[in-house]
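Box S1 | Example of a co-folding query
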Amino acid sequence: MNSSNNIVTGNITSGKHISFWIDSVENPGSFNKPDKNYNTDVVIVGGGIAGLTTAYCLLKSGKQVIVVEDGYIGSGETGRTTAHLVNALDDRYYDLERIFGEKNTKLIAKSHSEAIDFVEQTIKEENIQCDFKRVNGYLFLHPSDKIETLEKELEAAKRAGINVSRMAEVPGMKNESSVVILFPDQAQFHPMKYILGLAVAIEKKGGLIFTGTHAKEIDETGIITDDGIRIKAKHIVVATNSPVNNKVVMHLKQYAYRTYVIGATVKKGTLPQALWWDTGDQEKDIPPYHYVRTHPFDDNNDLLICGGEDHATGLADSENIKEEDRYALLENWARLHFPIGEVIYKWSGQVMEPMDSLAYIGRNPMDAENVFIITGDSGNGMTHGTIAGNLITNLINGKENELEKIYSPSRFKFFKSGMTFLKEFVGGLAAYLKTYPRDADAVTLSSIKTGEAEIVELNKKKHGAYRDAYNKLHVVSAECTHLQCIIKWNNDEKSWDCPCHGSRFTYQGKVINGPANKNLEYYDE
Ligand code: FES
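Box S1 (continued) | Returned holo structure for FE2/S2 (inorganic) cluster
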């Protein structure tokens, strides 16, 4: 295997940077491609935690299952997460109560607690070695936030049935003495080791997994791959982070963000194994927050994995902070609060933020009854993906599930969602228009320097042109294959990102994030 070539083509991971998780597994999660047509009970598109957990649960319930993944296992967002397994959700419980009511918020909290239990149980049952550990989680105040935020959250989390308590200091942190909420019984694991273990269990139970297999057509009868293989199925599940089989409806209800991660050494024994989160920078429209965990690394060091500095996908420039400059901000913040040594990893990931803070899991709106989607991770992709596995299995088997309506992709809570989503949409549109490339006709291909990219006008159409480190020029059509917005260059991950709904493409035009499901036209020298 030529790993550097696989990175360029987006097979191993959806960007230039390699996460610690992908770097620390031997098997990159590659399986065969299908060489004949199939007929099965369920076909699942997407080989991340959501797709594989769903496959695992369905197999246990007696269904035949085929999983197809266009890269390798975990080459989407599961390989780029920081893998917090929590019922301390990214969005506040007092907001969930306002949107979903107290009774449903209890069920939401319970569903996340049970997802952590499910992962723990599955690891035992399938003997998966993935460094799972129960840990404490600490939610503390961002300096821009008010103490009432934590007080309200403490009470709302208690009402939701979580055993939270208040502490006066944040364990393990320096320069931090604010009030903090302790969420006990959270967990962390190595997400790639976990899903590779799930993949082994799926095969043992008779499931089939195909990688390097792109589902170019998806409908209620099954899928057709790029190679023309037909997989007919009674049920279809699309677990592709952003659903590639839903053209419009879902993309009016959620918004795509880039988030940044560094991995730095910290001397073994200096910090507890734990999770930390602040309440987010309230001076920004959509308050980005920091999220931190530790993970065993080598004989002398643990790794402190710290994330944050989010921005709407494709719109980093509108805040005048380029994608690649966000790691330094993260490092400064981490050094201020934790005794870190060298930064040895950096990578970014994509988060889908639903308008009402909760994942969309269930029947695809305005589609046949047998087509399901899993999307809107809301920064809690590990638990939401696990909840999806159980919920979709029940829906397919016709079993009642108290979560069906709560997580339904058809729900529409616009009026209860508050101003945040409106700000995201209006702000995103304004930022897109502000950064729209109006002077593309003034740019010539020869003026693009090594390592740079520009939108240029060729034959009266906009194109994206990138000159690589070897001076080779790569040109793609600049119209996103979802709804034709003009793509933006992400110099950090060397990808073309779409500011409208978060589709992403390699510099050779291969689609690596939905909702687009088709490559950009590509021309090289
Ligand atoms: Fe919708 Fe590009 S992602 S137009």
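The longest helix spans residues 102-126. The chain has a mean pLDDT of 91.
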